[in-house]
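Please go through the sequence line and token line underneath and see whether the fold suits the sequence. See right below:
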Amino acid sequence: MKLAELLNTTTSYIGEIEINRKKPSLDMVEKIAEVLGIEPFRLFLKSKDEENGSIENSLTDSYLERLSTSERQNLTKRLITLISNDVESFLQPESKTR
């Protein structure tokens, strides 16, 4: 319920995403990641369960499988931009203030 409140959406919508009945927009993926305090691309990585070995993130496969070619291309471009921006900010030397 708290996640839905933080995202300004309904708990039923979040539930639909969790059980793979709905796919979130790219904007919603970014909002979810922001609320969770992670980079958006992490939502698409496979996670590991210590007891059961490798478990696929339910969002990853079902979300990506249902995307059209143009949606996949758009997602790829946005992820590349986000990752590139993070890399650039990491590589830039800190500005010195006087």
Remarks:
- Residues 41 and 83 are 8 Å apart (CA to CA).
- The longest strand covers residues 47-49.
- The radius of gyration is 16 Å.
